[in-house]
């Protein structure tokens, strides 16, 4: 393999001692002598920082090794006074915007690795959290070397595991980092815990990509796979390459060892050709996600597909993607350069904002590595664990929803495929399974419509779960146009009759599902229903018009749009939870503690969102001396108790206290905070262990300490722990 070159920039603290400066200069001299520097080899840049940044030379200033050696020899120390600020945060921002651009000599767009070596003599005078994250998310590997700065700050600034004290760093160590074939891989917390999944990468190798960009795609695959725990009993990986035709390069049971798989990725062939993404998705479903080729779907192991493409498909993607998702595969789509965003969203699982990744050039794939890897690992864990837990919680809550009348109004027009109609029926069946069905409890009816509405069965027809499910299974699709307004008008008298047959007022709901634009007016009939007290949920699929959906529901929170009918299953929980929680929260006295990340890496607008979230939970809860108690603690490098569980017993007091909270700034020691907060569930600190106790942790997920043991200790106390991530 040819030697791989890099763009290397040194950013030196201008306030280090003269002796330290001589040590650094001698180090740079040796590096300049030993590495192959030049316009077509490694490139070197250099700057110093204090209150501001002083540029010494950019990456493209010196074209030969001799010029670089001479420039290092001329390099002079800034000699800042000890009182002058060291604004490393601002220097990182400056480096990102000025040192790693094409104009400054960066070759990131050609696939050269980008390194920033930070040599810090003391902790920064300004915050480094956000700028560190931004520069790393741009695909730049940051090497941190301490000449007096704390290891805690270096861990924030540098890319793990490249964190060193000056006495531990040598020229050979740095050379290994710069010239290694691939960066050292490091399993993040989520990836260490993501033990089980079958992941298939479906990779476009069409002619529009080109050989150089294909190498960047292979490098991207290498990095993502390096961070996963690969083995036959853990994470299995498959690779499908496609142009006009799909080909299996790696089945899920081809490789047993990670290093063998990684070596194979280094020699993947590039063929060029067309872009038939739909065929590749069908091929993967029929030939890769099967037991004979190593899939463990029969054992309940999560099935994941990651599609990487740079252009619009030349065949039908929508149906192929829906079939793959219906087969139980979670689909992520990664679009590069000229990829079609609409198509990427139609391919990916719901919700698209969590499953679609887009970059405008192949060079920027590097910046996606961490976020995609993190998302994959996080979702592998949480889809394996949380979904079943959440479903159980929802079901328990909904059994307590004593009385409600729910009508489904379903579009069965000719534009709906038979498989889509089956998805709709499945959606209704899951509702039936969740609620306590009976004349005194929850009653359910179905009306279908096309050109005109017709009653399938009303609320009083079926009085138990089994007969109701059988009736849903037997619903037939007839076809026709889409007159949603007429169907909404039809519902008014049905809800009036429901009230009479019930004998008293109960909550009433209408769930509307449609796949197209209504040819008549929907706003007035929907408003009339809401005036009757009906809560309407509007679900639009495929060609439905979002504006019309809003007119039907009258509330953005009850308006849903999905690209395909198979995604109905994923929004079901949101609707069921909304129907149930209004009553459920009032029924369960208990202790609720919020543990809020207040570190410097949380953006102010996200901090305010956290406060709004807490206030909305307080507003929906049945707060009182003998009901729900709420407490709040903030944390960063240290913890700050805002109020314990036994201080406030009214919503007004709690909301005033939350409004008065200010962000602390600093690091993210989540584990320490969980240990600290645990005492506030004890009776001596206001807790009531005989009632249900919950902890809600809200963080950006980047803990700088060990979280697992403190969380397990708290769960052992009987406390339910919920973790909510703030997305970057």
UniProtKB/TrEMBL annotation:
SUPFAM superfamilies: vWA-like
Pfam families, A to Z: VWA
Matches recorded under CDD domains: vWA_collagen (cd01472), vWFA_subfamily_ECM (cd01450)
Origin: domain of life: Eukaryota
Domain VWFA: 7-182, 198-372, 405-579, 591-728
InterPro entries cross-referenced by the UniProt entry: ECM_Assembly_Org, VWF_A, vWFA_dom_sf
Protein name: VWFA domain-containing protein
Organism: Characodon lateralis
């Amino acid at each position: 393999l040819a030697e791989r070159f890099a763009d290397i920039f040194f950013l030196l603290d201008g306030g280090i001692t003269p002796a330290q400066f001589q040590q650094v200069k001698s180090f740079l001299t040796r590096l300049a002598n030993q590495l192959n520097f030049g316009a077509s080899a490694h490139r070197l840049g250099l700057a110093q920082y204090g209150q501001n940044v002083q540029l010494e030379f950019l990456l493209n200033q010196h074209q030969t090794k001799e010029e670089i050696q001479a420039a290092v020899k001329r390099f002079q120390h800034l000699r800042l006074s000890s009182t002058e600020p060291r604004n490393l945060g601002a220097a990182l921002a400056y480096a990102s915007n000025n040192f790693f651009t094409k104009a400054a000599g960066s070759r990131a767009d050609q696939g050269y690795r980008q390194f920033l070596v930070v040599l810090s003599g003391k902790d920064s005078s300004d915050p480094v959290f956000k700028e560190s994250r931004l520069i790393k998310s741009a695909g730049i590997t940051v090497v941190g070397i301490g000449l007096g700065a704390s290891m805690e700050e270096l861990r924030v600034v540098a890319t793990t595991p490249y964190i060193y004290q000056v006495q531990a760093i040598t020229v050979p160590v740095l050379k290994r980092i710069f010239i290694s074939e691939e960066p050292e891989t490091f399993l993040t917390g989520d990836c260490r815990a993501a033990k089980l999944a079958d992941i298939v990468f479906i990779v476009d190798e069409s002619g529009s990509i080109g050989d150089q960009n294909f190498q960047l795609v292979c490098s991207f695959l290498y990095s993502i796979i390096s961070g996963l725990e690969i083995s036959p009993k853990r994470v299995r990986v498959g690779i499908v390459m496609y142009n006009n035709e799909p080909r299996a390069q790696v089945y899920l049971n081809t490789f047993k060892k990670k290093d063998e798989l990684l070596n194979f990725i280094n020699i993947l062939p590039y063929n060029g050709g067309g872009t038939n993404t739909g065929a590749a998705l069908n091929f993967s479903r029929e030939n890769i996600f099967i037991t004979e080729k190593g899939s463990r779907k029969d054992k309940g192991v999560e099935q994941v597909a990651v599609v990487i493409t740079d252009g619009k498909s030349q065949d039908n993607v929508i149906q192929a993607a829906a079939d793959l998702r219906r087969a139980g595969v979670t689909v992520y789509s990664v679009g590069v350069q000229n990829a079609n965003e609409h198509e990427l969203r139609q391919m990916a699982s719901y919700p698209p904002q969590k499953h679609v990744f887009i970059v405008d050039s192949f060079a920027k794939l590097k910046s996606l590595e961490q976020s995609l890897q993190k998302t994959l690992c996080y979702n592998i864990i949480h889809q394996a664990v949380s979904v079943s837990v959440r479903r159980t919680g929802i079901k328990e809550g909904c059994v307590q929803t004593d009385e409600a009348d729910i009508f489904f109004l379903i579009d069965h027009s000719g534009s709906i495929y038979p498989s889509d109609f089956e998805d709709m029926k499945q959606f209704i069946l899951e509702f039936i399974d969740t609620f306590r069905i009976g004349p005194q409890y929850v009653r359910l009816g179905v009306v279908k419509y096309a050109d005109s509405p017709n009653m399938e069965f009303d609320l009083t027809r079926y009085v138990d779960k089994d007969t109701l499910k059988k009736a849903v299974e037997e619903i037939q699709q007839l076809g026709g146009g889409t007159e949603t307004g007429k169907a909404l008008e039809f519902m008014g008298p049905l809800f009036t009759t429901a009230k009479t047959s019930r004998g008293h007022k109960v909550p009433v709901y209408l769930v509307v599902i449609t796949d197209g634009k209504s040819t008549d007016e929907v706003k007035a009939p929907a408003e009339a229903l809401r005036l009757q007290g009906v809560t309407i949920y509007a679900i639009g699929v495929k060609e439905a018009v979002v504006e019309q959906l809003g007119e039907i529901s009258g509330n953005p929170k009850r308006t849903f749009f999905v690209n395909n009918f198979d995604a109905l299953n994923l929004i079901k929980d949101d609707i069921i939870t909304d129907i149930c929680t209004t009553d459920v929260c009032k029924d369960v006295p208990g202790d609720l503690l919020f543990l809020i990340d207040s570190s410097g890496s949380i953006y102010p607008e996200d901090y305010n969102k956290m406060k709004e979230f807490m206030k909305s939970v307080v507003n929906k809860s049945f707060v009182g001396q003998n009901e729900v108690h709420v407490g709040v603690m903030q944390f960063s490098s240290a913890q700050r108790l805002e109020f314990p569980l036994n201080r406030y017993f009214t919503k007004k007091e709690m909301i005033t206290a939350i409004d008065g909270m200010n962000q602390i700034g600093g690091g993210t020691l989540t584990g320490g905070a969980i240990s600290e907060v645990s005492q506030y569930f004890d009776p001596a600190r206001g807790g009531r262990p005989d009632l249900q106790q919950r902890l809600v942790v809200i963080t950006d997920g980047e803990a700088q300490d060990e979280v697992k043991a403190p969380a397990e200790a708290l769960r052992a106390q009987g406390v339910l722990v919920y973790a909510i991530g703030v997305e970057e």
